[in-house]
Design goal:
244 residues, seven-stranded mixed β-sheet, two-stranded antiparallel sheet, 9 strands
């Protein structure tokens, strides 16, 4: 299956927190979308790898993803190695996405920056014919996505691109709340130690951040992305006019 947009995430729930709205926008536009998590998030203070796998499957249903996979790298300790780069290349060549979304270049959690570099390098190397990979014994063709966009997560980084998710904000929040062990909800109160992301105000901050990004382009809610490659448009209809 060829995907139009493929998001890579260091941990289950990174994509939901950062680009779920954009994935929903693209899905509603008839595009095929997917998420590949690099790790199972097994070092999280709450829940377990098995529970988070079930939660990520529930979130995938909410986001109507065509694909959700996990590469099983070591949470907190995965390296920028040939082995891990090849794992990502195999998935890029399998799904041939035109656009890749991935973690921010630098962020609060060190895995986010590591994941960003890993996916960015894999996206380039995936286009080299002399980098040989195979899937189920069949050689894969080289494939390089048109764009690699880094979604903004915890830190307030300056976006190069903003996507209007005003109509998708409620579904985005539902996908985040599918991770019942990770984020605040009355059912799981006392289920584990309080963490940075399990406090009630954490989700409020997500909403407020999306609201602040939306304000910058004259919409209610938006998600932001960073790109090293300049983005062009075919006509001005693609532009959103900021309210004045």
């Amino acid at each position: 299956m060829k995907l139009d947009v493929l998001a890579f995430a260091a941990h289950p729930d990174d994509a939901e927190l950062s680009c779920a709205g954009t994935l929903l926008v693209e899905k509603k536009n008839g595009k095929k979308t997917g998420v590949i998590d690099l790790t199972a998030g097994e070092l999280g203070s709450r829940g377990s790898a098995e529970i988070r796998s079930k939660e990520s499957a529930e979130a995938a249903n909410i986001l109507q993803l065509d694909v959700r996979e996990n590469l099983g790298m070591s949470d907190g300790f995965f390296e920028h190695s040939k082995e891990n780069i090849i794992k990502v290349i195999e998935k890029i060549r399998k799904y041939q996405p035109d656009i890749i979304l991935c973690n921010a270049p630098e962020d609060r959690h060190p895995d986010h920056g590591k994941g960003a570099k890993l996916v960015e390098d894999a996206a380039f190397l995936s286009g080299l014919i002399k980098v040989e990979t195979s899937m189920d014994g069949t050689p894969q063709q080289a494939w390089r996505p048109k764009y690699v966009l880094h979604y903004i997560q915890d830190r307030h980084l300056e976006p190069d691109l903003l996507v209007d998710i005003s109509d998708e904000i409620e579904e985005k929040l539902q996908s985040i709340k599918a991770y019942k062990t990770q984020f605040f909800n009355a059912e799981m109160s006392g289920a584990g130690p309080e963490t940075y992301i399990s406090k009630p105000e954490f989700l409020d901050n997500i909403i407020n951040n999306n609201k602040l990004l939306g304000k910058r382009i004259g919409v209610t809610f938006a998600e932001g992305f960073i790109t090293k490659k300049k983005i062009g448009i075919k006509n001005f209809d693609a532009l959103i006019q900021e309210n004045t």
